[in-house]
Design a protein that fits this description.
Strand 7 and strand 8 form a beta hairpin. This protein has two domains: 119 residues, Rossmann fold; 103 residues, Winged helix-like DNA-binding domain superfamily/Winged helix DNA-binding domain (Arc Repressor Mutant, subunit A), CATH 1.10.10. A five-stranded parallel sheet has the order 2-1-3-4-5, sandwiched between helices. The radius of gyration is 18 Å and the shape is globular. It contains eight helices and twelve strands. It is α/β, with parallel strands linked by helices. The protein is 40% helix and 21% strand.
């Protein structure tokens, strides 16, 4: 049984989400303030975190940054205010895996949760190779680990998914729409800009100079390509 942590201070929203996810067969943990949420999020048994931005004690952005800085890569879906695009962009930059805009339907949120969990659980056997090395870059598809010069690089689930798909298809340019469909899933609706935000974060983590990319090449107006040499 998958365990979900809901960090939300609005009791009416928290109760509805808790009931809905329990009915779907999930185990649910709830926190109503940021500090309590941060403590509970460190539990390795948590499979996914639903994180509101505006929280007492510590806001969602700070929680997300803190968890990622500690090497905790539990998937995070952020709840953002309607029309606040900057919140969505910042959330992704700080390491969130997805976002849902308030007001939202429980069905939409459940679809996002299932899509993220499916992506993480997807077996890498269809990769054709379980390990990839190019120069100082090493990617272990079985362990979902990435290293640069032996140093482990902490990637979010989406970042790893993007890197994996680019490596799988390293002989061609991949359009943004294809990356969205393959990494986020065909049943999840996100903007093309989401790809660029995640790709920028990924390149920062992999490159000494993101403007002189050795691994991920941006093809203006089209998409991205993994450097094959």
């Amino acid at each position: 049984m998958k365990k979900i942590l809901i960090i939300e201070d609005e009791e009416s929203i928290s109760m509805v989400l808790e009931d809905d996810f329990r009915l779907e067969g999930y185990e649910v943990e709830v926190a109503s303030d940021g500090l309590d949420g941060l403590e509970k999020a460190a539990d390795p048994e948590i499979d996914l975190i639903i994180l509101d931005i505006m929280l007492p004690g510590m806001n969602g952005f700070d929680i997300c940054k803190k968890l990622r800085s500690q090497g905790i890569q539990t998937p995070i879906i952020m709840l953002t205010a309607k029309g606040q695009e900057i919140d969505r962009v910042l959330g992704l930059e700080f390491g969130a895996d997805d976002y849902v805009t308030k007001p939202f339907s429980p069905r939409e949120l459940q679809a996002r949760v299932k899509a993220v969990l499916r992506r993480i659980e997807k077996e890498p056997d269809d990769v054709g190779e379980n390990f990839f090395r190019m120069g100082e870059l090493e990617v272990d598809f079985l362990q979902y680990e990435c290293r640069i010069s032996g140093r482990k690089v902490a990637l979010t689930a989406h970042e790893f998914g993007l890197l994996k798909y680019l490596i799988q298809n390293r002989e061609r340019v991949i359009e943004r729409d294809e990356l969205l469909a393959e990494v986020w899933g065909k049943d999840v609706v996100v903007s093309v800009r989401t790809i660029d935000t995640h790709m920028a974060n990924l390149r920062k983590k992999l490159e000494d100079d993101a403007n002189q990319s050795r691994f991920i090449i941006s093809i203006r107006g089209v998409g991205y390509k993994f450097a094959s040499k």
